[in-house]
Amino acid sequence: MPDRHKLVIRLVAVVGLLVAVAFAVDLDAAITSLLDANLSLTILAIILVQGQIVLSAYRWHFTTQRLGRPLPIGRAISEYYLASLLNMVLPGGVGGDAVRATREGKAREGAADKAYGVAASAVILERLAGQVAFFMVAAVGIACWPLLLEDTLPVGTGWLLAAPPLILGALALLAWVGTRLAPRPLANWLKTLGPSIRKAWLTDGAWLIQGALSFAIALLYIAVFALASAAIGAPLGLLAAAALIPLVLLTMLVPISIGGFGLREGAAAALWPLAGFAGSDGLAAALLYGVVSIVGALPGALLLLKRSSAASSRA
């Protein structure tokens, strides 16, 4: 299927989901809450987004060091800002990471295939470390559910918890098959993935740094959403934030929308009443979270402008 058709499908999905949510809740109340959002809390949320991006960039910097291809921290931060912005506005939520890996591969010296292989490994392992930590945080939040709300978890929660081991198992199987059936360059790269995981995550205490960074980043994501909810007048308590927000953020991993829009709003509108707020509050909080995330990543636009200017000057 051509890329433009996929983009149209995702745009239709986002609009359709948002329209469905708008019909399910009090849209006027959601818009009013959004327009009356507390400016101080919104600014604080934007500041915390900077912490997410900088710590994530340092995790990438650390991962590349472990793989023997040091990446200057300044370049890591600027590239991560760009990738974060692109992830919020491109379909699938990983387009920015693909751009990050490609740009870093081009910047490397030596054989092109080796440079791109290391760059791709570093990006994949850095993001995967974050996803593993976030699923662990989500599991803790779900364990808090009976303490906060009710014994019955939302429909689909079991699948969310089962997804990580299932996905990891499927990826391991694909990697094993790929080492035997894939074209030689890809097979060679897959054979290096296991040793790369050990270097980046496990040996010489790397797991301590990877774990500390990844859990800190996961908590920052939750804090930003909690601030967005508080800003629109629906402050969540600690247990409510731990139980609800990870479930909402997990929906953003489903690659059928753009930047998680639509799925995130639908999940928040469904879950916020469980904490004593209206569905319209969940919609407003999720929309504000999306805006805050984009605004927080806007410094990435400076890199895009710089790149465009450099290309124009060479033309």
From TrEMBL:
Localization recorded for this chain is:
Cell membrane
**InterPro entries on file:** L-PG_synthase/AglD
GO CC term (a single one): plasma membrane
Q: Which keywords does the record carry?
A: Cell membrane, Membrane, Transmembrane, Transmembrane helix
The record ties this protein, via Pfam families, to:
LPG_synthase_TM (PF03706)
Nuclease: present as a keyword of the record? no
UniProt KW Electron transport keyword: no
Q: Which PANTHER family match?
A: BLL5419 PROTEIN
Report membrane topology.
Multi-pass membrane protein
Which named protein is this?
A: UPF0104 family protein
Residue ranges spanning the membrane: these are: 7-25, 37-58, 128-148, 160-179, 200-224, 230-254, 286-305
